[in-house]
Specification:
Number of helices: 6
Order of helices and strands: HHHHHH
Oligomer: single chain
Strand content: under 5%
Shape: globular
Length: 111
């Protein structure tokens, strides 16, 4: 799977969509909580924010985030499965918006 393919929002997950916006707010909140534990309280998070370069998250942080997402959304959202389909360079370049797109699409598929 290429970064371009996972980065392109679908019509059902464009910013401005209520479910997308709510999912973004949930994920941004989870990230802020995770970053606060590391002493980073004032971090700007938007659609293009990368987990690796911008937030400087390590793999264990992504595992923690995946657990939080599973706890919040249940079995409908499997971040481990999503990440397993990516190449290493795609994981390094992964953005918050791409994750929100995935979660939003998963929630819609489960409905």
């Amino acid at each position: 799977m290429s970064t371009e393919a996972i980065g392109r929002p679908t019509a059902a997950s464009l910013p401005g969509d209520e479910l997308w916006e709510r999912t973004f707010a949930d994920i941004a909140g989870m990230l802020r909580d995770l970053l606060a534990e590391e002493g980073l309280d004032d971090v700007e998070i938007d659609r293009g924010t990368t987990f690796h370069d911008d937030l400087e998250l390590e793999s264990i942080d992504l595992v923690t985030l995946a657990g939080s997402l599973r706890e919040h959304y249940g079995e409908k959202v499997n971040v481990a499965l999503f990440v397993a389909d990516l190449e290493l360079d795609e994981i390094i370049a992964l953005t918050v918006g791409q994750l929100v797109d995935y979660v939003t699409e998963s929630l819609r598929s489960a409905s």
